[in-house]
Amino acid sequence: VVVCVGQVVTDHTFRVDEVEPPPSKTTARGYAPSVGGMAANAAIAVVRLGGAALFWGRVGRDEAGEELRHVLEAEGVDASGLVMAEGARTPLSAVIVDKRGERSIVTYRGERLPTDPSALPLERLAEAGALLCDPRWPEAAELAFRAARARGLASALDAEKSEERVLRQLVPLADHVIFAKTGLTIFAPNLPPEEGLARALTTGPLALAAVTLGEKGTDWRCPGMERAATRPAFPVEATNTTGAGDVFHGAYTLAIAEGQGVEEALRFASAAGALRARDGRTPDRAMLEELLAGDTD
Ligand code: ADP
Protein backbone atom coordinates (compact mmCIF):
# COMPACT_ATOMS: atom_id res chain seq x y z
CA VAL A 1 0.00 0.00 0.00
CA VAL A 2 1.24 3.47 -0.94
CA VAL A 3 -0.25 6.55 0.75
CA CYS A 4 -0.26 9.51 -1.66
CA VAL A 5 -0.73 12.99 -0.18
CA GLY A 6 -1.28 16.24 -2.04
CA GLN A 7 -2.82 17.67 -5.15
CA VAL A 8 -5.91 16.58 -7.05
CA VAL A 9 -7.37 18.74 -9.84
CA THR A 10 -9.58 18.37 -12.87
CA ASP A 11 -7.37 18.53 -15.97
CA HIS A 12 -9.15 19.98 -19.00
CA THR A 13 -6.91 18.81 -21.84
CA PHE A 14 -7.07 20.47 -25.25
CA ARG A 15 -5.12 19.03 -28.20
CA VAL A 16 -3.93 21.61 -30.71
CA ASP A 17 -1.45 21.64 -33.61
CA GLU A 18 0.52 24.67 -32.43
CA VAL A 19 0.25 27.02 -29.50
CA GLU A 20 0.17 30.46 -31.13
CA PRO A 21 1.75 33.39 -29.32
CA PRO A 22 -0.87 35.79 -27.92
CA PRO A 23 -3.09 37.45 -28.89
CA SER A 24 -4.43 34.39 -30.68
CA LYS A 25 -7.33 32.03 -31.18
CA THR A 26 -6.71 28.34 -31.60
CA THR A 27 -9.20 25.61 -32.41
CA ALA A 28 -8.72 22.42 -30.43
CA ARG A 29 -8.57 19.09 -32.30
CA GLY A 30 -9.78 17.32 -29.21
CA TYR A 31 -10.85 17.84 -25.62
CA ALA A 32 -11.08 15.56 -22.60
CA PRO A 33 -11.48 16.20 -18.89
CA SER A 34 -9.60 13.86 -16.55
CA VAL A 35 -8.27 13.60 -13.04
CA GLY A 36 -4.94 15.33 -12.58
CA GLY A 37 -2.72 16.59 -9.83
CA MET A 38 0.60 15.11 -8.85
CA ALA A 39 -0.37 12.93 -5.90
CA ALA A 40 -3.67 11.85 -7.49
CA ASN A 41 -1.97 10.80 -10.73
CA ALA A 42 0.64 8.97 -8.72
CA ALA A 43 -2.05 7.13 -6.73
CA ILE A 44 -3.74 6.00 -9.94
CA ALA A 45 -0.36 4.86 -11.29
CA VAL A 46 0.24 2.79 -8.14
CA VAL A 47 -3.07 0.96 -8.68
CA ARG A 48 -2.50 0.41 -12.42
CA LEU A 49 0.90 -1.03 -11.62
CA GLY A 50 -0.59 -3.59 -9.29
CA GLY A 51 -0.34 -1.86 -5.90
CA ALA A 52 -2.95 -0.40 -3.57
CA ALA A 53 -3.18 3.35 -2.98
CA LEU A 54 -4.74 5.63 -0.40
CA PHE A 55 -5.19 9.24 -1.50
CA TRP A 56 -5.19 12.14 0.98
CA GLY A 57 -6.00 15.54 -0.43
CA ARG A 58 -8.49 18.39 -0.38
CA VAL A 59 -11.19 19.69 -2.69
CA GLY A 60 -14.33 21.77 -2.37
CA ARG A 61 -17.67 20.19 -1.60
CA ASP A 62 -18.78 21.07 -5.12
CA GLU A 63 -19.59 19.23 -8.32
CA ALA A 64 -15.96 19.08 -9.46
CA GLY A 65 -14.90 17.73 -6.06
CA GLU A 66 -17.60 15.02 -6.10
CA GLU A 67 -16.58 14.04 -9.61
CA LEU A 68 -12.89 13.77 -8.67
CA ARG A 69 -13.75 11.56 -5.71
CA HIS A 70 -15.89 9.38 -7.93
CA VAL A 71 -13.17 9.05 -10.60
CA LEU A 72 -10.47 8.22 -8.02
CA GLU A 73 -12.69 5.50 -6.58
CA ALA A 74 -13.53 4.19 -10.05
CA GLU A 75 -9.77 3.90 -10.62
CA GLY A 76 -9.52 1.74 -7.52
CA VAL A 77 -7.91 4.36 -5.28
CA ASP A 78 -9.12 4.51 -1.66
CA ALA A 79 -10.26 8.14 -1.50
CA SER A 80 -11.64 8.04 2.03
CA GLY A 81 -8.91 10.53 3.03
CA LEU A 82 -10.14 13.13 0.54
CA VAL A 83 -11.25 16.17 2.55
CA MET A 84 -14.25 17.87 0.92
CA ALA A 85 -14.48 21.37 2.37
CA GLU A 86 -17.70 23.35 2.54
CA GLY A 87 -17.39 26.70 0.73
CA ALA A 88 -14.04 25.84 -0.92
CA ARG A 89 -13.52 25.66 -4.69
CA THR A 90 -11.88 22.65 -6.31
CA PRO A 91 -8.65 23.26 -8.27
CA LEU A 92 -8.52 22.77 -12.03
CA SER A 93 -6.03 23.02 -14.88
CA ALA A 94 -6.14 23.88 -18.58
CA VAL A 95 -3.63 21.60 -20.33
CA ILE A 96 -2.73 22.44 -23.92
CA VAL A 97 -0.88 19.68 -25.76
CA ASP A 98 0.67 20.37 -29.16
CA LYS A 99 1.29 17.89 -31.94
CA ARG A 100 4.79 17.16 -30.65
CA GLY A 101 3.32 16.17 -27.29
CA GLU A 102 4.68 19.24 -25.49
CA ARG A 103 2.30 20.76 -22.99
CA SER A 104 1.49 24.12 -21.51
CA ILE A 105 -0.47 24.12 -18.27
CA VAL A 106 -2.40 26.82 -16.46
CA THR A 107 -3.40 25.74 -12.97
CA TYR A 108 -5.99 27.32 -10.73
CA ARG A 109 -5.19 26.13 -7.22
CA GLY A 110 -8.72 26.49 -5.88
CA GLU A 111 -9.98 28.77 -3.16
CA ARG A 112 -10.54 28.50 0.57
CA LEU A 113 -9.13 24.97 0.71
CA PRO A 114 -8.45 23.97 4.32
CA THR A 115 -4.82 24.06 5.49
CA ASP A 116 -5.32 22.15 8.75
CA PRO A 117 -4.44 18.46 8.09
CA SER A 118 -5.78 17.12 11.38
CA ALA A 119 -8.72 15.37 9.65
CA LEU A 120 -6.34 13.00 7.84
CA PRO A 121 -6.46 9.36 8.99
CA LEU A 122 -2.77 9.13 10.01
CA GLU A 123 -3.37 5.78 11.71
CA ARG A 124 -3.69 4.24 8.25
CA LEU A 125 0.05 4.67 7.74
CA ALA A 126 0.19 1.42 9.73
CA GLU A 127 -0.98 -0.44 6.56
CA ALA A 128 1.44 1.34 4.27
CA GLY A 129 4.66 0.17 2.65
CA ALA A 130 5.64 3.70 1.65
CA LEU A 131 4.43 7.31 1.64
CA LEU A 132 4.54 9.81 -1.27
CA CYS A 133 3.81 13.52 -0.82
CA ASP A 134 3.79 16.42 -3.25
CA PRO A 135 4.28 20.03 -2.05
CA ARG A 136 0.74 21.29 -2.78
CA TRP A 137 -0.56 20.74 0.75
CA PRO A 138 2.58 21.40 2.77
CA GLU A 139 0.93 21.14 6.20
CA ALA A 140 -0.38 17.66 5.36
CA ALA A 141 2.94 16.60 3.82
CA GLU A 142 4.85 17.70 6.90
CA LEU A 143 2.48 15.88 9.25
CA ALA A 144 2.60 12.69 7.16
CA PHE A 145 6.39 12.76 6.73
CA ARG A 146 6.94 13.19 10.47
CA ALA A 147 4.52 10.36 11.26
CA ALA A 148 6.22 8.13 8.66
CA ARG A 149 9.67 8.84 10.03
CA ALA A 150 8.50 8.08 13.56
CA ARG A 151 7.22 4.70 12.33
CA GLY A 152 10.26 3.93 10.17
CA LEU A 153 8.05 4.02 7.05
CA ALA A 154 9.90 4.91 3.81
CA SER A 155 8.81 8.19 2.23
CA ALA A 156 9.28 10.08 -1.03
CA LEU A 157 8.79 13.75 -1.93
CA ASP A 158 7.75 14.88 -5.40
CA ALA A 159 9.73 18.14 -5.23
CA GLU A 160 7.89 19.96 -7.99
CA LYS A 161 8.07 23.69 -8.61
CA SER A 162 6.76 25.45 -5.49
CA GLU A 163 7.78 28.16 -3.06
CA GLU A 164 11.37 27.92 -1.84
CA ARG A 165 10.09 28.00 1.74
CA VAL A 166 7.96 24.91 1.14
CA LEU A 167 10.79 22.96 -0.48
CA ARG A 168 13.14 23.84 2.38
CA GLN A 169 10.47 22.72 4.84
CA LEU A 170 9.80 19.35 3.19
CA VAL A 171 13.09 18.16 1.66
CA PRO A 172 14.72 17.27 5.02
CA LEU A 173 11.67 15.27 6.10
CA ALA A 174 11.57 12.76 3.21
CA ASP A 175 13.83 9.75 2.62
CA HIS A 176 13.76 9.94 -1.19
CA VAL A 177 13.55 13.40 -2.76
CA ILE A 178 12.86 13.56 -6.48
CA PHE A 179 12.97 17.06 -7.92
CA ALA A 180 11.49 18.37 -11.11
CA LYS A 181 14.04 20.55 -12.90
CA THR A 182 12.36 23.77 -11.78
CA GLY A 183 11.98 22.45 -8.24
CA LEU A 184 15.72 21.88 -7.99
CA THR A 185 16.46 25.36 -9.36
CA ILE A 186 14.23 26.89 -6.70
CA PHE A 187 15.69 24.73 -3.92
CA ALA A 188 19.32 25.37 -4.89
CA PRO A 189 19.52 28.51 -7.01
CA ASN A 190 22.93 29.27 -8.53
CA LEU A 191 24.16 25.71 -8.03
CA PRO A 192 24.74 23.21 -10.84
CA PRO A 193 22.19 20.35 -10.56
CA GLU A 194 24.76 17.89 -9.28
CA GLU A 195 25.63 20.16 -6.36
CA GLY A 196 21.97 20.98 -5.77
CA LEU A 197 21.37 17.26 -5.25
CA ALA A 198 24.38 17.10 -2.92
CA ARG A 199 22.98 19.99 -0.91
CA ALA A 200 19.61 18.23 -0.57
CA LEU A 201 21.42 15.18 0.87
CA THR A 202 22.98 17.34 3.59
CA THR A 203 19.60 18.57 4.93
CA GLY A 204 18.52 15.34 6.61
CA PRO A 205 18.83 11.56 6.66
CA LEU A 206 17.99 11.23 2.95
CA ALA A 207 18.57 7.98 1.05
CA LEU A 208 18.35 9.60 -2.41
CA ALA A 209 18.16 12.97 -4.13
CA ALA A 210 17.27 12.94 -7.83
CA VAL A 211 16.06 15.24 -10.59
CA THR A 212 13.93 14.15 -13.54
CA LEU A 213 14.94 15.59 -16.91
CA GLY A 214 12.27 14.31 -19.30
CA GLU A 215 13.77 12.44 -22.25
CA LYS A 216 17.26 13.06 -20.79
CA GLY A 217 16.42 10.69 -17.96
CA THR A 218 17.03 11.11 -14.24
CA ASP A 219 20.16 12.32 -12.45
CA TRP A 220 20.44 10.83 -8.99
CA ARG A 221 22.73 10.74 -6.03
CA CYS A 222 22.88 8.77 -2.78
CA PRO A 223 24.97 9.63 0.28
CA GLY A 224 28.57 8.57 -0.20
CA MET A 225 28.52 8.84 -4.01
CA GLU A 226 31.37 10.96 -5.41
CA ARG A 227 29.10 12.40 -8.06
CA ALA A 228 25.62 12.09 -9.54
CA ALA A 229 24.74 9.19 -11.85
CA THR A 230 22.25 9.25 -14.72
CA ARG A 231 19.45 6.77 -15.17
CA PRO A 232 18.79 7.17 -18.92
CA ALA A 233 15.21 7.51 -20.17
CA PHE A 234 13.72 4.69 -22.20
CA PRO A 235 13.66 5.87 -25.83
CA VAL A 236 10.03 6.35 -26.87
CA GLU A 237 8.15 8.62 -29.23
CA ALA A 238 6.36 10.99 -26.88
CA THR A 239 2.78 11.99 -27.72
CA ASN A 240 1.81 13.57 -24.39
CA THR A 241 4.28 14.13 -21.57
CA THR A 242 1.58 15.37 -19.14
CA GLY A 243 1.80 13.42 -15.93
CA ALA A 244 5.01 11.57 -16.85
CA GLY A 245 6.62 12.92 -13.70
CA ASP A 246 3.61 11.99 -11.55
CA VAL A 247 3.58 8.45 -12.87
CA PHE A 248 7.34 8.27 -12.33
CA HIS A 249 6.90 9.24 -8.67
CA GLY A 250 4.03 6.79 -8.12
CA ALA A 251 5.99 3.97 -9.72
CA TYR A 252 9.15 4.81 -7.79
CA THR A 253 7.33 4.82 -4.46
CA LEU A 254 5.53 1.56 -5.27
CA ALA A 255 8.89 -0.02 -6.09
CA ILE A 256 10.28 1.16 -2.74
CA ALA A 257 7.18 -0.24 -0.98
CA GLU A 258 7.83 -3.56 -2.76
CA GLY A 259 11.38 -3.58 -1.39
CA GLN A 260 13.23 -2.71 -4.61
CA GLY A 261 16.56 -0.93 -4.23
CA VAL A 262 17.10 2.63 -5.40
CA GLU A 263 18.60 1.78 -8.81
CA GLU A 264 15.99 -0.84 -9.55
CA ALA A 265 13.23 1.56 -8.48
CA LEU A 266 14.61 4.30 -10.74
CA ARG A 267 14.61 1.91 -13.69
CA PHE A 268 11.05 0.77 -12.92
CA ALA A 269 9.89 4.39 -12.60
CA SER A 270 11.65 5.45 -15.82
CA ALA A 271 9.86 2.72 -17.73
CA ALA A 272 6.52 3.87 -16.28
CA GLY A 273 7.23 7.53 -17.14
CA ALA A 274 8.29 6.64 -20.69
CA LEU A 275 5.14 4.62 -21.36
CA ARG A 276 3.00 7.42 -20.01
CA ALA A 277 4.79 9.91 -22.31
CA ARG A 278 4.40 7.56 -25.29
CA ASP A 279 0.75 6.61 -24.82
CA GLY A 280 -0.65 9.55 -22.85
CA ARG A 281 -2.01 6.89 -20.46
CA THR A 282 -0.62 5.25 -17.36
CA PRO A 283 0.62 1.75 -18.23
CA ASP A 284 -0.40 -1.43 -16.45
CA ARG A 285 2.13 -3.75 -14.85
CA ALA A 286 2.26 -6.17 -17.80
CA MET A 287 3.16 -3.39 -20.27
CA LEU A 288 5.82 -2.13 -17.94
CA GLU A 289 7.35 -5.56 -17.37
CA GLU A 290 7.41 -6.08 -21.12
CA LEU A 291 9.40 -2.89 -21.63
CA LEU A 292 11.78 -3.82 -18.82
CA ALA A 293 12.26 -7.33 -20.22
CA GLY A 294 13.17 -5.94 -23.65
CA ASP A 295 15.74 -3.58 -22.13
CA THR A 296 19.20 -5.04 -21.84
CA ASP A 297 20.62 -2.00 -20.07
P1 ADP B 1 7.77 16.28 -15.08
O1 ADP B 1 6.50 15.74 -15.70
O2 ADP B 1 7.70 16.39 -13.58
O3 ADP B 1 8.34 17.48 -15.77
P2 ADP B 1 9.72 14.73 -16.53
O4 ADP B 1 9.19 15.28 -17.79
O5 ADP B 1 11.13 14.97 -16.18
O6 ADP B 1 8.82 15.10 -15.28
O7 ADP B 1 9.47 13.15 -16.61
C1 ADP B 1 9.69 12.27 -15.54
C2 ADP B 1 10.37 11.00 -16.03
O8 ADP B 1 9.54 10.35 -16.99
C3 ADP B 1 11.70 11.25 -16.73
O9 ADP B 1 12.77 11.24 -15.79
C4 ADP B 1 11.77 10.05 -17.67
O10 ADP B 1 12.26 8.90 -17.00
C5 ADP B 1 10.31 9.83 -18.05
N1 ADP B 1 10.02 10.58 -19.29
C6 ADP B 1 9.43 11.80 -19.41
N2 ADP B 1 9.36 12.20 -20.70
C7 ADP B 1 9.92 11.22 -21.43
C8 ADP B 1 10.18 11.01 -22.82
N3 ADP B 1 9.84 11.94 -23.73
N4 ADP B 1 10.78 9.86 -23.21
C9 ADP B 1 11.13 8.92 -22.29
N5 ADP B 1 10.94 9.05 -20.97
C10 ADP B 1 10.34 10.17 -20.52
Automatic annotation (TrEMBL):
Domain Carbohydrate kinase PfkB: 2-278
Keyword Kinase: yes
Entry's Gene Ontology molecular function annotations: kinase activity
Endpoints of the signal sequence: none
Keyword terms of this UniProt record: Kinase, Transferase
Transmembrane regions listed in the UniProt entry: none
Superkingdom of the source species: Bacteria
Cited Gene3D superfamilies: 3.40.1190.20
Stored PROSITE patterns: PFKB_KINASES_2
Keyword Transferase annotated: yes
PANTHER family to which the protein is assigned, alphabetical: SUGAR KINASE, SULFOFRUCTOSE KINASE
Family, per entry: Belongs to the carbohydrate kinase PfkB family.
Name of the protein in question: Sugar kinase
Species annotation: Pararoseomonas baculiformis
